[in-house]
Amino acid sequence: MLTSEYTRPLVGRPYYSNEGIIKVYDRSNRDYYVGEVIFERFDEQNFQYVFKPYWNCIDQIPNGLFQGIPGINMDIRREAYYRVNMTPTFISMRTPSESRENVRELMASVGLDYYDRFEWLLRSEMRCGDDNLLVVRKPRDIQRIRGWENIRNRHLHPNDVVEINSLADMQSSNARLVEDMFRLLQSGVQIYIISEDRYLGYDERRTMLYLLRNMLECIDRNNRLRREEGIEEAKRNGRYAGRKPIELDDQLLKQVAIAFLNNRISEQEAMQRLGIGSRSTFYRKIRAFR
């Protein structure tokens, strides 16, 4: 159990700060926002990490997907958790330590000529094989975006504002647009309705999230059924040979798996080296190697 020495926040204003957003991914690679992590340095000896859960977002995540932030007791539902003058488990399990043999090469791989494990994490967007969490850089400035269709490829957070003309703007049966609307609501971003001069309320957001999640599940189910029907038809016509397993050179798999498991390369780089596009296939190969 950590003592107050490691959990009592430092007093004063940090001279350096860096911020990231923590996301969790489901099997369809949809991202859910769970909080932010901040690194602050006060002088050469004193620093702290601050974890701030997005409780409103967490409460809307499907059951069983989010298991918590490693090393943080989320049962007590604090607004902020502090780790002072120590590297928390969440950071150490997905970043290289300063004593690591190839640490200079790892820093250089993301354009750093000095040691900064938190900045390395943000630049590499490293995923840990033990969970489905990812840290991305939090934008420095609050984003004010006109129209929910402009949110793609943005890292949103609850301080951002998206303006829409009316709730009618958020009606669609298009699968991609439903995905965008779901992501917008789940990010916790504030939604300003111009025609009504108000922000979308919490209960409205919760109801819409529930409906959109059900729509996405129906879309996924229908797509899966169409694939299965296509396979059955191909079998009846003698055209289906089954999905061929990806053949990998054993030596290449060994090299890449060792490098990935030792955090020398990122998940993305490992998949690129192996020529694998599916995360599930990638981790199946890694488990087989182990």
Describe this entry's structure for a reader.
With 290 residues, the protein is of the alpha+beta class. The protein has three domains: 134 residues, no CATH class; 93 residues, no CATH class; 40 residues, no CATH class. 36% of the residues lie in helices and 17% in strands. It has a five-stranded antiparallel β-sheet with strand order 4-3-2-1-5. Strands 6-7-8-9 form a four-stranded mixed β-sheet, with no helix packed on it. A hairpin with a 5-residue loop joins strand 2 and strand 3. Helix 6 packs antiparallel against helix 7 and helix 8 packs antiparallel against helix 9. The longest helix has 35 residues. The radius of gyration is 22 Å and the shape is flat. The two termini are 32 Å apart. The model has no long low-confidence stretch (mean pLDDT 85).
Map the helices and strands.
Elements: H1 4-7, E1 16-25, E2 31-41, E3 47-53, H2 55-58, E4 81-84, H3 89-92, H4 103-108, H5 117-124, E5 133-137, E6 144-146, E7 161-164, H6 175-186, E8 190-193, E9 198-199, H7 202-236, H8 250-261, H9 267-274, H10 279-289
